[in-house]
Amino acid sequence: MTLTDDTAPHSDRPFLIGVAGGSNSGKTTIAHRLAEMMGDDRLSLLKLDSYYNSRSEEPIEVRAAANYDHPDAFDWDLLNDHVAALSAGASVDVPIYDYTNHDRSDDFETVNSTKVIVVEGILVLWEPRLRERFDLKIFVDTPADLRIIRRLQRDVAERGRTPESILDQYLTTVRPSHERFIEPSKRYADVIVPEGGLNRPAIEVLLARVRELAG
């Protein structure tokens, strides 16, 4: 794990953390560990997956075939607006995504401004406007074989998909997008965590550092 010393909040606004990495790299595990450490009253979590573009006008066959690992799949304007609002002390209504229908649901989750705000997702270090907002940028670096195994386990168990469809999606969209967009964004990270949530020593060092920086 590489950690620089020039990661510190610049004002009394919330301390902003970006957690990026490949699909199923362990980003969510690390984000949740941060949330457990800080507590719900001190840390708010935004997930990039909540900001997939609405595709309600498209047939479900088209939605199912879309590349959800490409930057164009996300509503960056809304996410940036929400991060700006939270930084200013306001609350935001975050969309809830329906993975079964490949579209936003009609429901929202209200997220309040807190001392620490974590934005987690595959491309949060790729988007320049968002990246510039972060006080601490983390990249979770996990080998591809582990990531695809975790994806198979998750999508079969939680999303009712077949192994064949998962592997086809991985080869046609997930892997190419990772190599083109996600992996190159690692160069912007202040902290690189190998093995993701399996790297307990690195996570403990990271948690201690966040506690020190965020106060």
UniProtKB/TrEMBL annotation:
Pfam family, one: PRK
Domain Phosphoribulokinase/uridine kinase: 16-197
UniProt catalytic activity: cytidine + ATP = CMP + ADP + H(+); uridine + ATP = UMP + ADP + H(+)
Annotated metabolic or biological route of this protein: Pyrimidine metabolism; UMP biosynthesis via salvage pathway; UMP from uridine: step 1/1; Pyrimidine metabolism; CTP biosynthesis via salvage pathway; CTP from cytidine: step 1/3
Keywords noted in UniProt: ATP-binding, Cytoplasm, Kinase, Nucleotide-binding, Transferase
Domain of life per record: Bacteria
Entry's family note: Belongs to the uridine kinase family.
Protein name: Uridine kinase
